[in-house]
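Shipment paperwork, digital attachment
Item: protein structure file
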Amino acid sequence: MRPVAAFLIGGLFGLGLLIGGMTDTDRVQNWLDIFGAWDPTLAFVMGGAILPMAVAWRVAAARGRAGGAAALGGPLPEPRDYRPIDRDLVTGSALFGVGWALVGLCPGPSVAVLGFGGWPAWLFLAAMAAGMAGARFLRRGLPDPDPVCG
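Attachment content:
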């Protein structure tokens, strides 16, 4: 049942990205261009993602994370203390933002456009995977990053 649910939820997520315009690189770049041709419509997409997630976290907290069960029976993760803002976090965030602004894609939409984005989508996915592998290589010997937040 879990693989079927994961497939359906992933498909719904991809459809939401497509309908919401997150796979339209021009729209994403215009969202980020606050001093030029700014397009505020993606604020509604982000709000449409943040609001239900806020409700879901409240429901999860009410069910009791420690020892509680998710809707499909898996354990709910324990709350984590987030690491402080440091040079690595700021550098990684800046690189992510620059890549997002230059290409107009971030990880979720980049996977969603593989079927219709042509070779640039595949090139972006390969570059993103190389960046992730490079970051993991550079972090050798350091503690593993938070599995939820990267």
